[in-house]
Fold these 3 entries.
Entry 1:
Amino acid sequence: MQDLREGGAGASNEFWRSRRALNGGGFLACLGGLGFAYYAQYGIGLEPCPLCIFQRLALFALGLAFLAAALHDPRGWGAKVYGVLLGLTAAVGAGVAIRHVWLQSLPPEEVPLCGPGLDYMLETLPLAEAIREVLSGSGECAEIDWTLLGLSMPWWTLLLFLGLGVLGVLGNWRLRR
């Protein structure tokens, strides 16, 4: 800690190996992912499907968990609890992204029919049924409107969830304060 106050090079190195920096970086990565999603929607004009919206919600929840872990910066078992929370939240998001990728990989004749919009389902169906309907997917979720390096947005989201999940678990279980 003395190095940090004196501004020594060791302090800078030590900061980047800390859980707080890792969790703060995870929060910023989630913020960046959400920022790109909103840019794609409002800047490029890509309308999100229901599974895209669920992935955004999962990324938002993951970002909040990273932010809480960064601000709290616990020791011992507290860091492990945050690691588990981050891993579970990332797994939920990855699960939704996997479902989305699977729908996009179906041949056109096997794609489910387009269903009602998310707003309509949330207004007319009980929440559990609306969630089940969204996760079953629809034809609009199978459309690929954007790619980067040959991967669609759900693929990139899946990679983001997997990377942040592993980083969150291992970083909070292994790094020192």
Note: Confidence is low (pLDDT under 50) at residues 1-13.
Entry 2:
Amino acid sequence: MTQKYKFTFYACCVSSVLMAAIVNVTPIIFIPLKEIYNLTYASLGILCSVNFVTQFVCDFLFGYLADKFGVKRFLILAASLALIGFILFSASPALFPQNTFSGLLVATFLFSIGGGIMETLLSPVVNALPAENKAATMSIMHSFYAWGQVAVVLITTFLIKVFGRQNWFVTYLFWSILAFSSLIMLSLSTILPPERSENNNGIKSFIFKPMFLLSLLIMLGGGATEIGLSQWASSFMEKGLAIPKETGDILGMCMFAVFMGLGRTLYAKVGGKLRVINVLITGASLALICYIAVAVSPYPVFSLIFCAICGIAVSLLWPCTLTMCAEHFPYGGTLMFAILAGGGDAGCSSAPWLIGAVVDLAAKWPFCADFAAKLSLTAEQLALRIGILSGGIFPFMALVGLLVFKFKSKKKREQELKNL
């Protein structure tokens, strides 16, 4: 890979870190926002859902537009909107003193558009680079999201500790510097158009194929599995397990990201020796076990451990599903990646809202307080555990999709051998 394309790859990696900030800063300050502005858990979930619903819409809209008008200008737009959104989020208490939550929603909408565009376009940009091992290159780029999440957790937690919960807005001002850096690097990058076939029939070439529909289901379950736990880990550790915020953020949410980054980095090194489908099935199965263990473990240390392990379990569900689908439909173009990212975002938008809604609902159940007392828990702690447990539906969904995908792939290979 020549130097100019290496710079493009580095710009994509920095932008992947920016995506991690777009997704993960708000959940870290869930509890300060809840306490300062009297928000409910469902409202906090709505902030996350707005993030991913917006990204979901952007996946389809900008995938088509980028295919038609070119990728680079939309990546520059994405970084610009992320920068504006971060600044507006930090300024919302001053600009909207009577209804700060509305300001937070508007700001979230803006930087989520940026995140959605990047999520849609970074993968096909990296896939188009002249690299010998595209799966490894893709995994490395996605690993920067995980390492970015580690940095986001550590730096944001540090800033909250230093400046205090009342000054949470400092965190978004800090991360706006990263958005500005991404904007400059993308502006200077050389972007290749995504691979396409002269005989490509557009969306009809893949959209109704069973293997693509299964890939969408896997993306939905995989995205929800990753985001469901990572978005609620901070609040669950602090309120559900009564662990100090800094400890919970670092040992729970941060270690989740560390293990996710390790999984993607290791796969880039040795992944060529492994069958992608078997790696994905193992990951989805382990993630399901981790969700259950985090929710029901009577010992906080075990919940922390399984939260971290879940990071490596989910690490490849998103990038390897993209690669697996691209192998079946090599000329799907940007639009195919956009629709797959949309499937992932559909899961990402569902999981935080579902878990938050279940927590609020469970806390209102008449038997919750009595049953919690028998377990030496508060009603809120039990409700949070029930919410995390409900998220187990997502790795189960991904696992079912993967098993069917493997079965159909085996049948297809057998049929091809018969036709030889």
Note: The two ends are 37 Å apart (CA to CA).
Entry 3:
Amino acid sequence: MPNILAIIPARSGSKSVKDKNVRIMNGKPMLAYSIEHALQSKLVNRVIVSTDSPAYQEVARQYGAETPFLRPKEISGDASLDIEVFDHALRWLADREGYRADLCVHLRPTHPIRDPRDIDKMLTILLENPLIDSVRSVSPAMQTPYKMWIFPDQESDRMSPLVSCNVPEAYNTPRQRLPQVYMQNACIDVMREATILEKHSMTGDWIAGYKMKYDFDIDTEQDFLRAERLLLLEQALREGRRLKICCDIDGIIASKTPGNDYRKALPMENNIQTLNALYEKGFHIVLFTARGYKTGIDWKEVTIRQMLEWNVHYHELLFGKPDADIYIDDKLFGIDELKAVL
């Protein structure tokens, strides 16, 4: 077996989400998830956390990682580069232990949701293709660069396309006809030790892409809450716990109507299918609606009939939800996010 080393960089401090690398997420420090992913890999045979913090060292050891050194402060700042961290770790291990890694895995602790099987698939690409320097995980980009612009001359208002492709005037072309673009998602990177130490690069010259449908990199409080909610759902499914899901009707199950004449509402079929699938998985579905909250009109009979005709599966139907323009809730899920557990 080749020496395959997973390195998890976890410096202390964070400006966007304070101490996010060790912040508790669904019962354990976020750093723990990346350590567990590395340990669950069938090909990774050593896991190291590179940190500048003794407190982070203790957390890492508690969850099964090695912490043979403290990272120097000069490569632990906001502007420090990944190549500096990996070069330091590999040279430290070679000098102090005589250890050399054939392949390296870069797992960022800011990506607490990943499939360990993806680690092994990406490593296998390198093992089977000696000409490839690295493999980087990517996800479909939410926005296309073919409709982005730059101002080459800051003194002029004349724009130029950021990038071009084989589609004439791509910026005037429907998005569906443009090439699919992918964005690196900070989930998994794998590379050869020689790529780092000899080419002085985290990627090298030949970079293979590994496509993923998911992207859970944590950079904001919203990212943190989204990932924590999904982990809670996945854990509940594994443990067979029957979580309660409270779902609004209008805008989720029923289309919105002018003047709130709910009799004219139409079923939103895709969302109903998702909700019914959650019902079949054992979740307790509560429909909670603000219909009639402001006007005092009783929409119960109409609503019950619609749910029956639209084949909506639920356990409870509650009226009296406050009617507001904007709702703020730390447990709020979008219906598309819930599809991830199905």
Note: Residues 221-239 form the longest helix (19 residues).
